[in-house]
Design brief:
Blueprint lengths: L1 H21 L5 H16 L4 H12 L1 H13 L9 H30 L2
Helix pairs in contact: 1-2, 1-3
Length: 114
Amino acid sequence: MVFAMAQIMVFWVLGESLHYLTDIPISGSVLGMLMLFFYLMIRQNISLDLEKTSQALISQLTLLLLPGGVGLFFLGERMQGQWLPLLISIFVGSILSIILSLLLMKQLVKRKGL
């Protein structure tokens, strides 16, 4: 499990480094996870340790996202007049995420023959 966590951390650092060096408008965490995704796609294999470690991290995801959501409530006056665009973007982003996840799952199930 330590090696799997180190593997995730290495890709995170690579993503942060790429973001810092190129200054592209995508967070380093997202770049790192994309690199890990492509690495696993090329390898065509996920170790059991990496699977268990990632599942443990995903189960704690709400703890990682909660502080950011709570932080919105402290913006107060700065957010006045911007609630509608914020809610629309959250709604549209959620719908797009659900649709893309469903399409991906459909393709993966079809590929597996289930």
